[in-house]
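This part of the workshop introduces the protein records we will be handling. The question running through the whole workshop is how a given chain folds. To make this concrete, we reproduce a full record directly below:
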Amino acid sequence: MPFESVAAWNTGRGYTLKGQRVAAGLCGVDVYFADIDREIFGKISMKPWRSVFYDDDEIQMYVMSNYDTGQYENVLFQEVKELIDFAILVKGIDLTS
């Protein structure tokens, strides 16, 4: 799945010793995300007024506001594996336990 832009961050929430690591990527009109530590994977359909993200902070705010309020559709790990791999290689997310 080709992601147009990818962001990765740690919320700092104490779900694990590593916090809560999240990766998100824009694919067409959907934003896919992976909560790596809680193993929750989702898709957020873009709002009609939202057509572009200008930086990683905007993606993070958009994902977390929808994620925290349950406004997403669950997806399978296979749908976000490429996103997680990209976050590890390019964005530097540390997945060591």
Q: What stands out?
A: The beta strands are 5-10, 21-27, 30-35, 40-45, 73-74. The chain has one domain: 5-89. The CA atoms of residues 18 and 97 lie 7 Å apart.
